[in-house]
UniProtKB/TrEMBL annotation:
Membrane topology, as annotated: Multi-pass membrane protein
Segments passing through the bilayer: 294-318, 348-373, 462-483
Gene3D superfamilies per UniProt: MetI-like, Periplasmic binding protein-like II
Provenance organism: Lactobacillus kitasatonis DSM 16761 = JCM 1039
Full protein name: ABC transmembrane type-1 domain-containing protein
This protein's UniProt keywords: Amino-acid transport, Cell membrane, Membrane, Signal, Transmembrane, Transmembrane helix, Transport
Protein family according to the UniProt entry: Belongs to the binding-protein-dependent transport system permease family. HisMQ subfamily.
UniProt-listed NCBIfam families: HEQRo_perm_3TM
A GO CC term assigned to this protein in UniProt: ATP-binding cassette (ABC) transporter complex
Residue span, ABC transmembrane type-1 domain: 295-483
First and last residue of the signal peptide: 1-29
GO biological process per UniProt: amino acid transport
Length: 494
C-alpha cells in the first residue's frame, strides 16, 4: 500500500473527527493552576452558570417529569437557581455520578458543584467551599421493612453488606465505624436502593431526609436512625481552587437564603410537593418521552461511532500490514493499548483528561470519540484477518493484469475481505450499540441515562430496567436482521 494512500485515509479520519466538534458548546477549560476570577469572568461572558449535581438524592436534588420533560428539583436546585439569579446568569444543570463531580469541577466541565457535598479535609485539598448552607440532622439506615426487627444498630450489621454512595461521607463512615460489616459503594442512590430491595445489601446509609424520602415513597422500605457518630460539618457549594470572588458571591446568596429561612419555608415544601406528585403519577407511560429521547441519543452515538470505527479500523489494519516498520508498530501499540484498557476508563479519560485541554469538548462528542476509538482497534483486527484470508493468488493475478497495489486493495482484496469478515463486523456493531450505555457515566442523555432518571423520579428500580432491556433488544434484533440481509446480498452478488 502506498504511503500516500495511508495519509489520505488518515486525513479522512481527522476530517470525520473534526465535524463532530461542530456540535459542541463552549466550556471552560481548567488548568492545574486556575487564574483567580476566571470562572466568574466566564459566567459573566456566557451568561450561564453550569452547576454539577447527582440528581438522585431527594429531597435535596432529584428529577421529576413535567409535560414529558425532565425537571431538576429539590433544595440544592432551588439554591442553585438563587445563585444564578444573583449572578444574572441562566442556570444549566449537569447531572452525573457523584464520584465524578469534583473531577468535572477541576477540569472546568462545571462552574460549581451543589450536591449535598460536605467540605471534608480531603476535598478541601482539591477544591474550595462556600459556607455551610444546610446541616443534616443525622445519618439513617434505609432497610427493608421486613427486616425492621433485625437491623437497628451498627452491631446488627456485623458480617452483613452495607451500601453507600461512592465518594460520599456515608461511605467513609461505614469504613471507619462499621468495620465488621462489608461496605459496598455504587455511584447512584437508586442503584443502592435496588440492591437493597433485591437482597444484595442489608442496609444503605443515607442522610435523614433522603432516607425518609425513599421510605415514604416505597412501602417495602423503612428509615431507621443510625448510631453512627456524626462527622458531617454540613453541606456546602464546591468551587474550583482560587476563585475567591465566586465563593464570595455564593456566600452572599447563602446569607440571604439563611436570613429569610428559605430552605425551611420554600425549598423543602416545594421538594415535598414534587415527591408527593411523583408518587401519585409515576406510571411508565408518562415517561415514554424519556425512553424516546434516550433511543435517539443512543442511535446518534452508535452511527457516528461506527463511522469512526470503520475509518480508523481500515487505517490501522493497513498500517499494521505495511512494510514500513514505524507505521506497523504505531498500529500495533495502539491496538494493544486500546484492547488492554477498560472502555469506561477510556471514556472518562477523553472527557475529563483530553477535555481539560480542549475547551469545547462536550460530553456527547467525548463519548462518541471514545467509543469510536475503542471500536477502531477491534475493527482493525477484523479487517486484518479478512485481508489475510484472501488467497495470495488474487493479489498476484491483479498485479499481473497491471493493477497498482492501491487498486488491487481497493477492487480485489478489500471487497473479498469484507465478505469474509462481515459476521465479525456485525457482532462489533451490535456490541457498540450496547456499549453506548457506558457514556451515561459522563452525563450523556442516552437510553441508560434516561432509565436512571426514571428510576429516580418514580422510585422504581426494576421496571424501568426491564423496559430498557426490551428497547435494547428491539434495536439489536433489528440491526441483526439488517446485517443478515446485507450478508445475503453479498453472497448473491458473488
Amino acid at each position: 500500500m502506498k504511503k500516500a494512500k495511508i495519509i489520505h485515509l488518515f486525513l479522512a479520519f481527522i476530517t470525520l473527527i473534526s465535524t463532530l466538534f461542530l456540535f459542541n458548546q463552549p466550556t471552560f477549560a481548567a488548568t492545574k493552576k486556575v487564574e483567580n476570577g476566571i470562572v466568574m469572568k466566564k459566567i459573566k461572558q456566557s451568561k450561564e452558570l453550569v452547576v454539577g449535581t447527582s440528581a438522585d438524592y431527594p429531597p435535596l436534588e432529584f428529577t421529576t417529569s413535567v409535560n414529558g420533560n425532565t425537571k431538576y428539583v429539590g433544595v440544592d436546585i432551588e439554591l442553585a437557581k438563587d445563585i444564578a439569579k444573583d449572578l444574572h446568569a441562566k442556570l444549566v444543570i449537569k447531572n452525573m455520578s457523584f464520584d465524578s463531580l469534583l473531577v468535572a469541577l477541576e477540569t472546568g466541565k462545571v462552574d460549581m458543584v451543589i450536591s449535598a457535598m460536605t467540605p471534608n479535609p480531603e476535598r478541601k485539598k482539591s477544591v474550595d467551599f462556600s459556607k455551610i448552607y444546610y446541616k443534616p440532622s443525622g445519618e439513617y439506615f434505609l432497610i427493608n421493612k421486613r427486616d425492621q426487627s433485625k437491623y437497628r444498630k451498627i452491631k446488627d450489621f456485623a458480617d452483613q453488606t452495607v451500601g453507600a454512595q461512592t465518594g460520599s461521607i456515608q461511605y467513609q463512615l461505614i469504613q471507619s465505624q462499621m468495620k465488621k460489616s462489608k461496605v459496598k459503594g455504587l455511584g447512584k442512590i437508586n442503584n443502592l436502593v435496588l440492591a437493597l430491595k433485591s437482597g444484595k445489601m442489608s442496609g444503605v446509609v443515607m442522610e435523614e431526609l433522603t432516607a425518609k424520602a425513599y421510605a415514604q415513597n416505597d412501602n417495602s422500605l423503612m428509615a431507621v436512625r443510625s448510631d453512627l457518630r456524626e462527622q458531617q460539618a454540613g453541606n456546602a457549594v464546591a468551587v474550583a481552587k482560587g476563585q475567591g470572588d465566586l465563593v464570595k458571591a455564593v456566600n452572599k446568596t447563602i446569607n440571604r437564603v439563611e436570613k429569610k429561612n428559605l430552605i425551611n419555608k420554600e425549598y423543602l415544601p416545594a421538594a415535598a410537593k414534587y415527591m408527593k406528585t411523583a408518587q401519585k403519577t409515576n406510571t411508565m407511560a408518562k415517561y415514554a418521552p424519556y425512553f424516546v429521547k434516550g433511543v435517539g441519543y443512543t442511535l446518534v452515538i452508535t452511527v457516528f461511532s461506527v463511522l469512526i470505527g470503520i475509518v480508523l479500523g481500515m487505517l490501522l489494519a493497513l498500517m499494521r500490514l505495511s512494510r514500513n516498520k514505524l507505521l506497523h508498530w504505531i498500529a500495533v501499540c495502539y491496538i494493544e493499548f486500546i484492547r488492554g484498557t477498560p472502555q469506561m476508563v477510556q471514556i472518562l479519560f477523553v472527557y475529563f483528561g483530553v477535555g481539560a485541554l480542549i475547551s469545547n469538548l462536550s460530553a456527547v462528542v467525548a463519548g462518541i470519540i471514545a467509543i469510536g476509538l475503542n471500536s477502531g482497534a477491534y475493527v482493525a483486527e477484523d479487517i486484518r484477518s479478512g485481508i489475510a484470508s484472501v488467497a495470495k493468488g488474487q493479489t498476484e493475478a491483479a498485479r499481473s493484469l497491471g493493477l497498482s497495489q492501491a487498486k488491487t486493495y481497493r477492487y480485489v482484496i478489500i471487497p473479498q475481505a469484507l465478505k469474509n469478515i462481515w459476521p465479525a463486523l456485525g457482532n462489533e456493531f451490535i456490541t457498540l450499540l450496547k456499549d453506548s450505555s457506558l457514556v451515561s457515566v459522563i452525563g450523556v442523555t442516552e437510553l441508560m441515562y434516561q432509565t436512571e432518571l426514571i428510576q429516580t423520579s418514580t422510585y422504581r428500580g426494576v421496571l424501568p430496567l426491564f423496559i430498557a432491556m426490551i428497547i435494547y433488544f428491539i434495536m439489536t434484533f433489528t440491526l441483526t436482521r439488517l446485517l443478515n440481509y446485507l450478508e445475503k446480498r453479498m453472497k448473491h452478488n458473488d
